[in-house]
């Protein structure tokens, strides 16, 4: 498990979780607060694993809290930090802020769909070809940020690549590898192929009709 978006760790390049609660997010926040309100990617598994939080769930939590301005990410995208207002909050105040962040989102989740410019996807593929068609976790943090790839953009591109078997991610989530066919393909075909996959996404990935779990009334 790794820290979730907006960080650039390959194991978190997956679609957002479809159901989650403020109380579960509070478990993650409490663990980070205990760790002096910051957590590096290499600390996440030991700290969050025993709490039963998986990588996709954590990603959804951090997406929500980041959108509410309650967490930040380091310049090298390897350390997640609580903002002072959340770091210094007591248990009740902390949960209240987390709950407010959740309530600011839609009460029902539309089917997740990747959103990126196919030309940017082609640029990412070209970048991988330049490093022997393999992107390790360490290389991702060194190579992608200077090219302007955001964690969310990268996640969406990789989700399409993996879903279409143009690439694969290792079980431990630390390495992304282009398929042999993609690695050897004509670069001119990359953007059109990605555009076609994006255009067909809703048809090939119908909405599951999943809703966010609401807090139980007291």
Distance between the termini: 33 Å
Q: How large a portion of the residues is in β-strands, by DSSP E?
A: 5-15%
Low-confidence runs: 1-19, 208-218
Mean pLDDT level: 81
User: How do the strands line up in the largest sheet?
Assistant: 1-3-2
Summarize the main sheet: 3 strands, antiparallel
What is the percent of helical residues?
40-55%
- The tally of helices reads 11
**C-alpha-based Rg, rounded:** 18 Å
Note the run of SSEs as H and E: HEHHEEHHHEHHEEHHH
* Oligomer category: single chain
- Report the count of strand segments: 6
Overall morphology: elongated
Q: Which class best fits the helix and strand makeup?
A: mainly alpha
Care to give the gist of this entry?
With 218 residues, the protein is mostly helical. The chain has 11 helices and 6 strands.
Topology, element by element:
Blueprint: H1 22-34, E1 38-40, H2 41-48, H3 55-67, E2 71-73, E3 79-82, H4 84-87, H5 91-103, H6 118-129, E4 134-136, H7 137-143, H8 151-163, E5 167-169, E6 175-178, H9 180-184, H10 190-199, H11 201-204
Antiparallel strand pairs: 1-3, 2-3, 4-6, 5-6
Helix pairs in contact: 1-5, 6-10
């Amino acid at each position: 498990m790794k820290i979730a978006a907006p960080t650039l760790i390959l194991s978190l390049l997956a679609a957002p979780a479809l159901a989650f609660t403020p109380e579960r997010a509070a478990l993650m926040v409490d663990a980070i607060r205990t760790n002096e309100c910051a957590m590096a990617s290499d600390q996440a598994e030991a700290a969050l694993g025993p709490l039963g939080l998986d990588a996709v769930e954590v990603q959804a939590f951090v997406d929500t809290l980041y959108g509410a301005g309650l967490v930040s990410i380091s310049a090298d995208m390897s350390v997640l930090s609580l903002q002072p207002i959340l770091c210094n909050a007591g248990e009740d105040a902390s949960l209240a802020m987390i709950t407010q962040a959740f309530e600011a989102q839609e009460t029902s989740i539309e089917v997740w769909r990747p959103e990126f410019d196919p030309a940017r996807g082609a640029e990412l593929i070209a970048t991988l070809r330049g490093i022997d068609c393999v992107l390790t976790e360490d290389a991702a943090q060194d190579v992608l940020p200077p090219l302007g790839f955001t964690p969310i953009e990268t996640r969406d591109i990789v989700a399409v690549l993996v879903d279409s078997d143009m690439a694969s991610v290792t079980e431990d989530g630390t390495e992304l590898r282009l398929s042999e066919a993609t690695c050897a393909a004509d670069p001119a075909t990359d953007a059109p192929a990605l555009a076609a996959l994006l255009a067909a996404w809703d048809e090939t990935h119908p909405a599951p009709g999943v809703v966010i779990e609401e807090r139980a009334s007291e």
